[in-house]
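We close this part of the discussion by returning to an individual protein. Part of our work consisted of pairing the sequence of a single chain with a tokenised description of its backbone. No coordinates are needed to read the tokens, only the vocabulary itself. The amino acid sequence and the backbone structure tokens for this protein are reproduced below:
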Amino acid sequence: MRILIVSCESWRDTNNGGNVLSNIFCAFPEAEIAQIYCSGELPQNSICKKYFQISDLMLIKSEKGEVLEEKDYSTNNSYQEEAVENKIKNKIPDFFRESFLLMREVLWIVFNWRTEKLRKFITDFKPDVIFAPCYSYFHVSKLALYVKDIAKCPMISYISDDNYSLKQFVLSPFFWVNRLITRKWIRRLFSECSLVYTMTEMQKKEYENLLGRPMKVLCKSADFCNIEKKTGTPIKFIYGGGLYLNRWKVLEALVKSLDAVNETGIKAELHIYSNSKLTEKQKRLLNNRKSSFFHGAVSFSELEKKYAESDVAVHVESFDRKNRAITRLSFSTKIIDCMKSGCAILAIGPHSQAGISYLKSNDAAICVNDLNKLNSSIAWIIDNEDLIQKYAQKAKELGQKNHNKEAIEKMIKKDFYDIVSGDKS
């Protein structure tokens, strides 16, 4: 089977999108896989070796895209610095971010990306199926539809965030212009798909009603081994992930709670591993070298080792109105990493958020849905070592039940092969 992936981000195991792709497509060791992507970064994974790269800067420079083939993108490669366009975006104040994103969409309308070089890459590869994740950027949906038109093969999509509904709290008119156009292209994209995966049952039900397409829940999977470890002193809390969408503010509250219990001696520490860039204010709050330590980015394999050395894995979601709306249907892939780690999970966030709700309803984490109760919850954890062992076991059991790697890989392979064999349109 030949699988062509059309996505926004480069396939790097150090970014969330790339990590998801690796988790899904390790199920296809026999397949030939290629990717068309819209980022300036180079790939870094051990699965795919053939790429077509077309980035914002390439369009501005009137470049026709670049074929990257037969290069070593193994997971041993060192972490590469952010692409130039990402650095530019990170320097833009939040107030102007939505207008910048809309300007980028205009860029993809004005400049010609439907080149003979791209067409040749598609026709030479001759895919049997296209996998096209859904984004809040409509140029990626347009690209996926173009690829399907050229390839004449079935397509599968995957939506992990609320990129379609109008249940958002954003005042920027640029956001709503972008949103309304994006909705149109998502409808077109899904109308051409044989199957759409979602990450949560909540999103599946809502989007099936909104879009009338066949959907199926697909979460990240893992191998859940028995990990025997005793709680250390001080207790090590670990957070691995992004600090955007005001998640850093929730971590700030956690640090303050840890500071409170550490007044009479160091009883607990929070270690943060993230490729997010901190402001000076954030550095003071999240790296006080007493209760909190910020370590920057590490490879996924290194992060797994850090999890194994820790006691409590932290998952956070924002409480503010705007970000609650953005993340309400999202299921962070970090939740599965936390389950696999052998740590107890501390989940801090609104009870209505899909990932937090999933953990709470399955009693698989110590859940804090009100920041006013965080101090007492932290004191409770630190005073009850048995609680950490109990919730580490609960997290592992839920992972084994619902996120077993072998079972999910079997499901994915069956879906792909059934669609390829039954849908040649």
Remarks:
- DSSP finds 17 helices and 14 strands in the chain.
- The longest helix spans residues 173-191.
- Residues 72-82 have pLDDT under 50 and may be disordered.
- The CA atoms of residues 12 and 163 lie 22 Å apart.
